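Lecture notes, unit on protein representations.

Consider one protein chain, 503 amino acids long.
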Amino acid sequence: MTTGSVFENDSTYRSGDGTLTLSVVIICISAASAGLTFGYDVGVSGGVTTMPPFLKKFFPSVLHKMASTKQDEYCMFDSQILTLFTSSFYIAGLVSSLIAGRVVTIIGRKGILILGGVIFLIGTALNAFALNIEMLIVGRLLLGFGVGFANQAAPIYLTEMAPSRWRGTLNTAFQTFLCIGVVLATLINFASIPYGDKGWRIALGCAAVPGIIMTVAALFIPDTPRSLIQRGKITEARKSLGKVRGSKANVEGELNELVSSINANKAEDQEPFKKLLKLRYRPHLVLTVGIAFFQQLTGVGMVAFYAPVLFRSMGSGMKTALMGAVILGVINLGSTLVAAFVADKIGRRFLFLQGGIQIIFAEVAIAVVLALQKEHEHFTSHTATIILVFMCFIAAAFGWSWGPLTWMVPSEILPTELRPTGQGICVATTFIVTFILAQLSLTMLCHLKYGIFLLYAALTIIMTLFTGLFVPETKGIPLEFMDDIWEHHWYWRRYVPTCVDVV
């Protein structure tokens, strides 16, 4: 079966294949800094929920469970109100990502990054100065809105700005900054412990730093040529393209290709959501939703959000639990940097498949270790260390596969006119699955115990088979010719002959 790229040696596909200029690197890094906001929130939420002063003020029932000697260690943090603190962020992100597709066509990729940053900063202020649970949750909702906008715009921005041969490397910058945000959050969680009652406020308030970085960075970058052309700003598009491609690039040639492609799509004059449902776009829709849906089914949520909680449940002290989370964050960051170097060399499909296999192995291993631990005994530090090692395997595999590729591949395969809407659907799917899992994970841990890792392993087997069968290779293919990959795919090519009829 043909599932890989067939264009790697085709000299026809040269559009957007310019030199990697210093300007494009700086611009893409600036846009990718949006990942800091998402990563910081992921890291900080799991940490503050283990801090006794935070629990005492907002979730005293959890402290009572922790003090009970009869409490099942698997169920120590099983509180729907506590998980609402984490999961409310994702339901807000779901809503904002769905409307972001329309907003971005009006104010552009750059504009929505700025808007998302401002909303994120307002939410940060409410969280840091929260006086009650209501104020805390409202702040979380605003944080979710801001990150929803940023997560929709940043991957699109990177995909559209990067030269095709460097697109994988530059696109992983978003996930790299996300991982940096996680590491920074866990370090700040650790450092804020000595501050007692003020510690959790410091940790939540420091989210303003990534929010400011993203907002300020967005002010100084140009909008993407495709976004500018869609809004009729051809002169600005030419300047933007010249800035990122360099003086030796055929800017006029690429600009003409972009204008022709976008005008041809505009001629159909159909609402993006309806257009995406057409038969010719079935591959785009299925893969955009499928990849986003499966990402969180790796069980990475147990590693990212609840690692400190999980280690506390296994008998570790608060400092030890947070340090375990720091280690996982550093491993995840390092593996994302690996993806940046190899995504454009070995391709997306290999990373998907290898990462899935490694995650399956690690989750089965964790389940076996926990099953061998007698239920009436307390978890030992030896058991927690072994589990940390296998969690590092999960963090590493996710960091070079499902982490960056979930944002990268959908933004690559979607046509220009459908990219904002499709990426919004991708982000919304990710948020709704994350919301459900974030709300249920600790309850599932309580009732399934080690079986939760076997469940995630089974789901990862399904998703690995899905990527192996249905995800084509997009490495090195210019965006203007991305639609050609479907006619060479063993399954999706059956939809290609219908394109003329359906249009």
